[in-house]
């Protein structure tokens, strides 16, 4: 079992490094190669090394990253989100799709995922949704890079669980980054949440208590 896990980790690292090389080649063709691209170790967007250039981030990139993380993190507390109606909350039992289409539903579900230490699945899905809305090519490339660092890299503390097939698809897509680079990965994470976390959320005390609170009559003025 240990040797199989080691081989899987080696395969993931190989795919990870190939993806980094693919983006480097794409940027070179577009004339957007970093000045330090001649040194592969210093092309550190993928965080695949520990060289000192990892600590040298431009102020602009730091600002862009902070803004991106704020957008993808969104609301983490169900109480702070738009309060659902009783009808809305009850509809979440009907299907996972109805839950995900509801802003309040996504927020409450995300808060539940925090208790299961799998919040990164929702964060990744939301980041992909934001990416698909983007049309500016430069911004798309930056968001693709940031999503990779935050959720795809095997060194990220928020790495999502993807199989080798999807990782290879990402590797190919990195040759020409687009707003749909992570479409297959997003669908796989969506399916994972639907089959795994969603049933537990619907049967959780958190959801039951929410519905009960919405059913309770309002106090008379």
Write the layout of secondary structure elements.
Elements: H1 2-29, H2 59-73, H3 86-91, H4 96-101, H5 103-115, H6 119-133, H7 137-152, H8 164-173, H9 183-202, H10 205-215
Q: Can you walk me through this structure?
A:
The structure is a single chain. Helix content is 63%, strand content 0%. The protein is mainly alpha-helical. Helix 1 (2-29) packs parallel to helix 8 (164-173), helix 2 packs across helix 6 and helix 5 runs antiparallel to helix 6. The termini are far apart. 26% of the residues are buried. Residues 33-64 and 70-76 have low confidence and may be disordered.
What descriptors fit this protein?
10 helices, single chain, 221 residues, mainly alpha
Structural class of the secondary structure composition? mainly alpha
How far is the first residue's CA from the last residue's CA? 65 Å
User: Which sequence of SSEs, written as H and E, runs from N to C?
Assistant: HHHHHHHHHH
The helix tally amounts to: 10
Uncertain segments = 33-64, 70-76
Gyration radius over CA: 20 Å
Give the strand tally. Answer: 0
Overall shape: elongated
The helix content is 55-70%
Mean pLDDT: 78
Largest sheet: none
Strand content range: under 5%
């Amino acid at each position: 079992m240990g040797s199989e896990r080691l081989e899987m980790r080696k395969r993931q690292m190989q795919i990870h490094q190939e993806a980094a090389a693919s983006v480097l080649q794409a940027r070179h063709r577009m004339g957007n190669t970093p000045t330090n691209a001649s040194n592969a170790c210093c092309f550190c967007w993928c965080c695949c090394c520990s060289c000192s250039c990892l600590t040298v981030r431009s102020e602009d990139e730091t600002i862009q990253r902070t803004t991106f993380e704020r957008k993808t993190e969104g609301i983490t507390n169900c109480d702070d989100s738009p309060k659902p109606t009783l009808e809305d909350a009850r509809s979440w039992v009907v299907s996972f799709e109805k839950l995900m289409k509801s802003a309040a539903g996504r927020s409450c579900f995300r808060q539940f995922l925090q208790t299961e230490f799998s919040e990164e699945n929702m964060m990744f899905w939301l980041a992909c949704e934001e990416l698909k809305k983007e049309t500016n090519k430069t911004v798309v490339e930056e968001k693709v890079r940031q999503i990779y660092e935050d959720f795809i890299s095997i060194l990220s503390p928020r790495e999502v669980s993807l199989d080798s097939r999807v990782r290879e698809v990402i590797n190919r897509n990195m040759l020409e980054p687009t707003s749909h680079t992570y479409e297959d990965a997003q669908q796989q994470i969506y399916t994972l949440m639907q089959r795994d976390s969603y049933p537990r959320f619907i049967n959780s005390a958190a959801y039951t208590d929410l519905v009960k609170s919405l059913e309770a009559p309002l106090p008379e003025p």
